[in-house]
């Protein structure tokens, strides 16, 4: 039921996009909080080699490319005992809806951020229902709550993730599955290296995500900016929308 508390201690998790950034930090945090096993969904299995000496067989790298249906099928066959699914994998393709590249940008953002997430989740949902206590964690973005025009297409994909999370929460309300939405602001990762703004650390985000599981939270705003945006969005969403639009306008004037 909604509000289930899902401690990672002694449980099996599957983290998509685990090779770097937020996904890697969440993988480590789950292991540090006592997860029995973490399947790390990566496109390069060797990217986890440096963690194996410390975590041994508790860390299981699994090849996963959300653009490849066969990869998803193979990964879900391996992860049959999963109890916590962390849908973290995502891409950022800049651009708005008045660009020559709009359709290409939409194809990239939606293929991974939306279709990949849905395919992976649907493939594992029946197994999660069989667990005594389980969780689905979808990493959206503050831009999924209010769009920034310079990243309009990416924002739309993350808004879809937000809506999917709400839908899953409703459909699974009477089950054993906690459905959590995570809404980070700018985080210091490879994906955001070209964005000139203050950024929080993936480690801090990971700690708050895992603590959200332990506390049974349905909404997690895991960094300083997202906490501020989240508080305002819950009461005055139009103000957030105008602030984001104004931020971009100011940036363009500089």
Number of strands: 7
Query: In which range does the helix fraction lie?
Result: 40-55%
Q: Distance N terminus to C terminus? A: 49 Å
Task: Give the rounded overall mean pLDDT.
Answer: 90
* CATH topology title: Rossmann fold
Report the portion of residues in β strands. 5-15%
SSE ordering = EHEHEHEHEHEHEHH
According to CATH, what is the class? Alpha Beta
- CATH architecture identity: 3-Layer(aba) Sandwich
Descriptive report:
The protein has 254 residues and is an alpha/beta fold. The protein is built from 8 helices and 7 strands. A 7-stranded parallel beta sheet has the order 3-2-1-4-5-6-7, with helices on both faces. It has one domain: 3-Layer(aba) Sandwich (Rossmann fold), CATH 3.40.50.
Properties at a glance:
254 residues; alpha/beta; Rossmann fold; 7-stranded parallel sheet; 7 strands; 45% helix; disordered C terminus
SSE layout:
Elements: E1 12-16, H1 21-32, E2 37-42, H2 52-55, E3 59-63, H3 69-78, E4 84-87, H4 102-129, E5 134-139, H5 152-171, E6 177-182, H6 202-215, E7 219-220, H7 224-233, H8 237-253
In short:
This protein is 45% helix and 13% strand. It is of the alpha/beta class.
